[in-house]
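Working notes for the structural subgroup meeting. M.R. asked for a predicted model of this chain before we commit to crystallization trials. I am recording the input and output together here so anyone reviewing the notebook later can reproduce the run.

Input as submitted:
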Amino acid sequence: MRRRHAIRSLLGGGALMPAIVSDLLGGGAGPRGPHFPPRAKNVIFIYLSGGFSHLDSFDPKPELARAAASGGRHKGKPLLAPLWEFSPRGGSGTEISELFPHIAGRADELCLIRSMHGDHNNHFQATLGLHSGSFSVPRPSLGSWVCYGLGSENHNLPSFVVLAPRLPYAGGQAFDSDFLPGQYSGARIADPREPLPNLLPQSPSERTQRLELGLLADLNDRHRFARGDDPQLAARIRSFETAFGMQMQMPEALDLERESRATLEAYGLDPAQPAGFGWQCLVGRRLVERGVRFVELIHTGSSDNWDAHYDMKSHGPLAAEVDRPVAALLDDLAARGMSDETLVVFTTEFGRGPVLDGKNGRNHQASCFSTWLAGAGVRRGHVHGASDGLGEKVAEGGVHIHDFHATLLHLLGFDHKRLTYRHGGRDFRLTDVAGEVVGGVLA
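Returned structure, recorded in token form:
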């Protein structure tokens, strides 16, 4: 206890005093340093909930189109041709469909993986697996592992923020820290009109709030030291310490009035009423710019999403919500010199199959789907892996979810086998007991 009071006296009780004291005593979330020089410092993880169709977006299948046109069947069911036309894009000639015309215009910035595969065809398990590496039981999310390994660059903001108007399949487990310290869970922002409940301070002045927080810190100290080393209690105390800093910086980070009209229009935002996925993308950039390590942008939730069983045409309006803002995000990061340190991920929990489902839809398919990366450390204008003629199975260069996670961690400077946490008598890691870095996607 004397040591804590001594540190407080030395620091003079500044605005960041609680967070700094916590770090000096070993309980903070300061940068830890990766295992080797990283290519990326931050991640913007774009997740399209429900399973968008690779066959209609990023993986051209002329064989499927021909077979469907001639009335071909597969496994006793009619084949469904892609609904959107593919064409070569940019200097790289990467084929992308008209479903995402703006993203297609940035083909030379993308590292497209056409050979992703997972272990489960159900939404809940596939979503859990994509986010945590575990398809059966909850485990710490990718964002939590990243922030546990790297720590925070800004103690006044959470290191992991999730912009999600609606929860995905698996709910909050998709961005939970599970057995990692609670401070590494994703902080969800659901509504741009009220991003975080009770964000604005209620104290009559900042000085009064400092005094209140100083008293609270002393009471928390006594409570914590009387109960020994309780990581959940430490995380709860840490959350209150972070909350004070958030009151100082989060409103400014979410204030889009500081952005130019040209920037707002590029993201497809109405300056008078910013909302939608453009809001998520622009706020994501602003958060990363202010030191947030991992930002996840979730498009739609566990309903009214990309799960096109009945009619693939439902992909059209959904893609229109995403396409322009994501392209603007890539352009914005490049214009601000942030592309070299920010990794952008664009993915979903699984793909969709080549045969007809419902009236004009496709069923779930975990055996092969597409994902792309952009920015720090990845090969630009490059395609990795391939699916078979019908886009049903991996033909070459397979990338399992564990490989995908190992590669993302590698770009952030981590050996995925060494980023571990002791829990329940054993060392756990994001990639379980598998995973290999996909060297083909690295620049």
